[in-house]
Amino acid sequence: MVSFESSEVKKIGLGLTGFGVLFTLIGIFLFFDKGFLAMGNILFLAGVILTIGVKSTLQFFMKRQNFKGSISYGVGFFLVLIGWPLIGMMVEMYGFVLLFSGFWPTLVVFLQRLPFLGWVFRQPFVTSLLERNRGKRVPV
Predict the structure, then answer these.
(1) More confident residue, 29 or 127
(2) Can you give the pLDDT at residue 2?
(3) pLDDT by residue (tens digit) across 32-68?
(4) In the chain, what's the furthest Cα-to-Cα distance?
(5) In whole angstroms, what is the distance from residue 31 CA to residue 59 CA?
(6) CA distance to 28, 73, 76, 77, 78, per residue, from 32 (Å)
(7) pLDDT for the residue numbered 71
(8) What is the spatial distance between Cα 66 and Cα 71, in angstroms, rounded to a whole number?
(9) Is-contact 30 24, C-beta < 8 A?
C-alpha cells in the first residue's frame, strides 16, 4: 500500500474542497441543478475531512457552539441529496454562515491585504460595517 505524506493528503483535500465549491457554483448557475449541488456538497465535505483530518472535523462540527450550524448544514445537505435543491441550499447556506462565522475576521484581514482589491476593504465605510458585524467567536 502506498503511504502518502501528510502534506500530500492536505493538497488532495484542498483540491477536493476547491472542486466542491466549483461544482456548487456550477449547480447554482444552472438553476439549482441537484446533481451538481450534490456532487459539490460531497466533494466539499470530503475535502474538509482530508484537509484538517477526521478527528478535527468531528470536533469542529460537534462543538456545542456550532451545534445549530451543524444541524442546519446537515439538514440542507440531506435536502439537496433527496432532490430539493432550492430549499436545501438555503438551509445549508444558513448553517454554513453559522458554522464559519468565526472565520470572517480572518477573511476580512486577508481581503484588506490584497494588492488590487484591498483598498476597497480599507475604506472607512466598509471597515466600520465589517467591525460592527465582527463576532466574538474563535474559529476552531
Answers:
(1) 29
(2) 56
(3) 999 999 999 999 999 999 999 999 999 999 999 999 9
(4) 56
(5) 34
(6) 5, 17, 13, 13, 15
(7) 96
(8) 9
(9) no
> Kind and range of the H or E element at 108?
helix 104-112
Residues sharing a CB contact under 8 Å with residue 12, sequence separation 6 or more, in sequence order: 4, 50
**pTM listed for this prediction:** 0.76
97: alpha, beta or left? (left if phi > 0; alpha if psi -120 to 50): alpha
**Distance spanning both ends of the chain, measured CA to CA:** 33
CA 97 to CA 81: how far, in whole Å?
A: 20
Per the rule left: phi > 0, alpha: psi between -120 and 50, beta: everything else, 4 is beta
The residue type of 86 is: L
Cell of 87: 430549499
Q: Which DSSP string do the residues of 39-102 spell out, in sequence order?
A: HHHHHHHHHHHHHH-HHHHHHHHHSGGGHHHHHHHHHHHHHHHHT-HHHHHHHHHHHHHHHTGG
